[in-house]
């Protein structure tokens, strides 16, 4: 495959978990060096993540981001320089009530995110998954009933169901709820967001404001929440650890995240002399 000329790339957005981070949630050194190499070549750098903006210090402490942060899977855009948050979409209140009623009735824990804090219902202990220490250590406000949840402006909600049979039952229930995007982003984890929001939709908003131009955009992702973003970018790259269906949408496939696939792609597939 022909290399991509660096002069054709002006912007680059990176997913975090499963892409530039290792499976323990740490930024891989080789990836950091490769991203900085892009930045030194005048490519503006941004992050598009499922995490809320207040849980990305693993990145912002090491990279001076040039572009707004697309976070909570595209339900929010956050400007690091001004510290301002723009809410793109909230989970529909009727959908939120159905979600909360089901989870509380079955005593299944969850975390719900606003643009300011995390709320949690934890009848069986913390709702955490491997690879996100920032989330595990971040303060949470406990919820005890559905009424409390429904009053909140929720951008995203996540639950973890460890039993495979129960997981399928929960999944089937959630996909029957209107106006809801349901996905499995990490093993037994289920993420819920408004069905019309996505990282790709957030990119379109930024392009409409002349902040980026997708004809000169490089984007990396590994999961279903990255699909539209990868398709929208001129150079959309899917990680080797992604599903086969995701790999079918682009000719650009990187090595898995555990092999510093982002760094290898940047260093091997981008011509820094053109």
UniProtKB/TrEMBL annotation:
Gene Ontology annotations for the cellular component aspect, listed alphabetically: cytosol
GO molecular function per UniProt: magnesium ion binding; phosphatase activity
Superkingdom: Bacteria
Gene3D superfamilies recorded: 3.30.1240.10, HAD superfamily/HAD-like
Pfam families (alphabetical): Hydrolase_3
Family annotation (InterPro entries): Cof, HAD-like_sf, HAD-SF_hydro_IIB, HAD_sf
The protein's name: Cof-like hydrolase
Organism from which the protein derives: Mycoplasma amphoriforme A39
Lineage: Bacteria, Bacillati, Mycoplasmatota, Mollicutes, Mycoplasmataceae
